[in-house]
Design goal:
Blueprint lengths: L17 E3 H8 L4 H8 L3 H10 L9 H6 L19 E3 L39 H6 L2 E2 L5 E2 L8 E2 L5 H17 L3 E4 L33 E5 L2 E17 L6 E2 L18 E15 L8 E5 L10 H84 L4 H18 L4 H6 L7
Parallel strand pairs: 5-8
Antiparallel strand pairs: 1-2, 3-4, 6-7, 7-8, 8-9, 8-10, 10-11
């Protein structure tokens, strides 16, 4: 264990259920990690993961030995909390606190260019080696690829369109990166949604079996702190097909001699077949906030020329989407408040129902006690009358009557009315 220098201890919050980033940061630079872990009753490796998840810098190995000999270095600052990031450590198993910062568009100040990447890579990190996963993919009847890997860029294409799609995605992602807008898979902690993809060129109510691949996490771009979802897919068109080898083939791609229908009435099967043309779908990943735009190719390859204007358009849309998120936040807050009021009213009514029912149950029980009392008195009066009448009979007959009376009283049992009254529960006031 490292030697502990004579440094004032921070306030002990070991009994607190939720510990903030600021508190953990102060402790990390004033107390060795082993002592902090001991304070909270966890292992040092577990605590290290907590610091990593909360993005809190901590001293490197040997730091306290340098402090002990007077070689303390300046502490690195605590990084700002990004939208959606954790802001505290919950020790009791409750959901960890999340930063709920509202999205804001990037600054318009032209001097703030430090976030831009000086030298762009040839291939965006999201797309490195992606073709290998598509080569191993299952192919649907229509020709679309379904990779087994789901944690990768949101591309929905055919085997003939994969090269074109990856090249366009690379140009788009690098163009956004060059402007300082990060493209990445969404953070699981932010719980964003993904807009569904309808690859058909023409909208139709015709049912399409959901055989398309979908990513485990949406691909998103951060414009400032505003998040846009990105999907790139190959457009399909509804055409006549035949199925010579368990896969659909366009009739126009078959030899002329094999294009004829196999049915007497001339009926031909049709399917949604990939065209080689791409569509970029940009959408709002925020729940309850509807916003979606699409850019499509009229011919393969012409979408790349629209990337500069597309990036400019997204930057212009960022404050609009941020405003929609704020409106939805206000609406959700109002709805939550209304729900709380409704629940409070419901609880009040239920409590009143329970109170009235308790009074009615008590009244019914008291009536039962009274009826029991009346019955007991009636039985007692009956037995007393029999006993008095028996006294006027001859000895032998009297003994017979009294014997029968004893048996009757034994059969009836306890006639103490006070016991029934004691069992009554009066209503609570």
């Amino acid at each position: 264990m490292e030697d502990t220098p004579n440094i004032p201890e921070v306030i002990d919050d070991s009994s607190v259920d939720t510990v903030t980033r600021e508190s953990l940061y102060e402790q990390a630079w004033s107390t060795p990690m082993t002592k902090i872990a001991e304070r909270y009753g966890v292992s040092s490796s577990y605590l290290a993961r907590v610091y990593t998840n909360l993005n809190i810098p901590r001293p490197a190995v040997g730091y306290w030995a340098q402090v002990a000999v007077g070689k303390r270095k300046a502490n690195p600052p605590l990084p700002e909390v990004q939208p959606g990031a954790l802001i505290a450590w919950s020790r009791n198993g409750a959901p960890e606190q999340i930063s709920r910062s509202l999205p804001k568009a990037p600054s318009e100040n032209p001097d703030k260019s430090s976030t831009r990447v000086a030298v762009l890579p040839r291939r965006h990190p999201l797309l490195v080696g992606i073709e290998e996963h598509f080569k191993k993919a299952h192919i649907t009847d229509e020709g679309y690829l379904r990779p087994s890997k789901r944690s990768m860029a949101d591309l929905i294409v055919s085997s003939s369109g994969i090269s074109h799609a990856v090249e366009f995605a690379n140009q788009l992602y690098l163009a956004l990166m060059g402007k300082g807008f990060a493209v990445a898979l969404s953070d699981p902690a932010t719980h964003v949604g993904r807009a569904s993809v309808d690859h058909r060129e023409q909208e139709s109510k015709r049912y399409v079996h959901p055989a398309l691949w979908r990513p485990q996490r949406p691909t998103v771009v951060y414009i400032g702190t505003v998040v846009f979802g990105l999907s790139i897919y190959e457009i399909s068109e509804y055409v006549h097909v035949k199925r010579p080898d368990k896969k659909y083939v366009r009739v126009t791609e078959l030899p002329v001699t094999k294009r004829r229908s196999d049915y007497r009435d001339g009926w031909m099967a049709s399917a949604d077949m990939p065209t080689g043309r791409l569509c970029l779908q940009v959408y709002s990943p925020y729940y309850g906030v509807d916003w979606i735009q699409r850019w499509t190719e009229t011919k393969p390859g012409d979408l790349a020329s629209k990337i500069p204007s597309l990036v400019k358009s997204l930057k212009a849309e960022a404050p609009i989407l941020a405003g929609k998120v704020e409106i939805e936040r206000v609406r959700s807050e109002q709805e939550r408040h209304l729900h709380e009021l409704q629940m409070e009213e419901w609880r009040r009514k239920e409590a009143e129902k329970r109170r009235l029912k308790a009074i009615q149950d008590s009244r019914d029980q008291l009536e039962t006690v009274i009826q029991t009392w009346a019955k007991v008195n009636s039985i007692q009066a009956f037995f007393e009358d029999i006993a008095q009448s028996a006294q006027r009979l001859e000895s032998e007959e009297r003994q017979a009557v009294l014997y029968r009376l004893a048996k009757a009283m034994e059969l009836i049992g306890d006639l103490d009315a006070i016991k029934h009254f004691k069992a009554w529960n009066p209503p609570e006031t």
